[in-house]
Design a protein that fits this description.
Blueprint: E1 4-7, E2 10-13, H1 15-21, E3 28-35, E4 42-47, H2 48-62, E5 66-69
């Protein structure tokens, strides 16, 4: 089971999600991401793939190298 990946140089950590739900994130709905060292979550709608792409773009724009997906 995948608990992380790297896209365009941005490390994406799925471990909290996998621990809570027992599987990698997938499907359509609302997604919560923490970018870099930000304390406030960012919310995205759509498929997980769409949300992940938007979060990666936001992280790159903000100069972060890491994203964490909330459970």
């Amino acid at each position: 089971m995948t608990t992380s990946t790297t896209i365009s140089g941005i490390y994406i950590d799925y471990s909290a999600y996998v621990w809570a739900y027992g599987h990698s994130p997938r499907g359509k709905g609302g997604w919560v991401f923490y970018l870099g060292d930000e304390d406030e979550p960012r919310f995205y709608q759509g498929t997980f793939s769409q949300a992940k792409k938007l979060a990666v773009n936001d992280a790159k724009t903000a100069g972060y190298w890491k994203i964490k997906i909330s459970a």
